[in-house]
Amino acid sequence: MDDRLLTDRKRDQPKTILALRGLVVLFGALAVAFLMNLWGRPAPLYPIPLVDPAFLDTATNRRSYADLVRAKEDLSDFDCYACHEKNKPPPLRFDEHQNLLIPREHSDIVMGHGEHGRNNNCFNCHNETNLELLQTRDGRVLKFQDSPQLCGSCHGPTYEDWEAGAHGRISGYWDRELGLIKRQDCVNCHNPHSPTFQGRKPAPGPHFLHEQVQASADPATGH
Amino acid sequence: MSRRSFLRTSAVLASGLAALAASLSPLRELDDYVSLERFMQKYYKELTPDEMAKVLKRIEREVERQYGIRPHVRDLKPMDGVEFVYALNLTRCIGCRKCVHACVQENNQSRTPEIQYIRVLRMPHGSLDIEKAEHNYAPESVPEKGYFYMPVQCQQCKNPPCVKVCPVHATWQETDGITVIDYDWCIGCRYCEAACPYWARRFNFTQPSIPKDRINPDMAYLGNRPRRQGVMEKCHFCIQRTRVGRYPACLEVCPAGARKFGNILDPNSEVAYILRTKRVFIQLKGELGTSPRFFYYFDV
């Protein structure tokens, strides 16, 4: 080997040696810094609580009398003739402003059917000669499980929509040949005495990816 | 070689290798490794049924390893003579967001961070201007007076801009109208997210985390199988449900019955009835020419 080549190599000159040693120290320090994650960590994700399973429930707005029958629950409250006399229509009482006065025994009923309380006569829907049946204004007598026909006797367009599947909820199979459907009746969602939906608490909204400082959070993007 | 030069060389080499290993340290945080099988997987449309069966088995194994539950993964093909349409009744939606969370549960979406395919917008009465929408409403009680609520999810457009821009064809529209994503083919460039006018596409910025007890084991290849970091995902009309004839999860949970879904080619379906009889329809951002399959209507 030519000695000149070995001894004159750039690597052995003092400045080079110093620079190389400096670099080794620097890389060693960087190695330690990376291994110990001293900087440049991704921002930690803040924990998001799991949603309340009540928001995943496919339950309808309310349980109807038919649901209670199907669930074989205690129906003693619904036995009309436990208190009323057969063939004696119960009298209705109104106050001086023509508002219906709900008797104490039926105080759980809150009337609110129709604008300005127009539909405030119990026997618009209930059959006074047989309290276990319903009646329409055109003289039909209906069983409780056929109540959609009663609702439809006034709310015609909505009833047509309901029959076609455009009103209310149908669950199960859109392809009727592959499975059964469950069509909700009017009273599964609407309280017949006060049909308007009550308000409810909404489920949690969108979450940001990283925790936001409140002042600068942009609610429109949410990302 | 002298002892000195040997020691010097090996010290330099050792520090160099240590630095190299340290610079690769972010890979330690990578939970999901790329198996050779997945790397060499062919394009979805080129897979034979046997190869697809192997792919489904691989996914079942991976999910079982990660979550401890053996899922049932199917490759569901579109039904003949079916084109899906979604109709949403804006007089009925009360803004409760149950659809959002039913979707999260059904489709195995990440909970931390929480990805939600559906975004419910609270709009003031009298305007369809999206700029006036509020995304983060959280009152004590919905619906609030003076507002209506409009849930937005992937509109499964007939003329989808996201499909046009994908550089690798990881997303395409199938014959039943659903725009699908192959999560194993997506490279995560997010062009589709930029192209979508409805912000329907969600990106997995981090490794998704799903609690083990909330996994839905009934999965589809193009649907709700768990995704990984770096791929896009979006509403696919609950492909694992709708391609076997069932309603999507968002519809099943809606307490107001605002959502309607079905086959528009069937004249007896409720969506055909709605499009025939209702008079006012909105296709969001219709002027862009995307032709969404999502129709918002009112009960007038």
Can you walk through the features of this model?
The complex is a heterodimer of chains A (223) and B (300). In chain A, helix 4 (147-154) packs across helix 5. Chain A is rod-shaped. Chain A has a domain at 86-188. In chain A, a hairpin with an 8-residue loop joins strand 3 and strand 4 (181-183). With 223 residues, chain A is mainly alpha-helical. The longest helix of chain A is centred in the first third of the chain and has 22 residues, at 14-35. Chain A is built from five helices and four strands. Chain A has a two-stranded antiparallel sheet with strand order 1-2. Chain A has a two-stranded antiparallel ribbon with strand order 3-4. Helices cover 22% and strands 4% of the residues of chain A. Chain B is α+β, with helices and mostly antiparallel strands. Chain B has a domain at 97-240: Alpha-Beta Plaits (2-Layer Sandwich), CATH 3.30.70. Chain B has helices spanning 3-23, 36-39, 49-67, 98-106, 161-165, 191-195, 239-242, 249-253, 270-277; strands at 72-74, 84-89, 119-124, 147-152, 171-173, 179-181, 202-203, 218-220, 232-233, 259-263, 281-282, 294-297. A four-stranded mixed β-sheet of chain B has the order 10-2-12-11, covered by helices on one side. In chain B, strands 1-8 form a two-stranded parallel ribbon. The longest helix of chain B is centred in the first third of the chain and has 21 residues, at 3-23. Chain B is elongated and about 95 Å long. Chain B starts with a helix and ends with a strand. The model of chain B has no long low-confidence stretch (mean pLDDT 92). The chains are: A mainly alpha (223), B alpha+beta (300). At the A-B interface, helix 2 and strand 3 of A face helix 1, helix 4, helix 8, strand 10 and helix 9 of B.
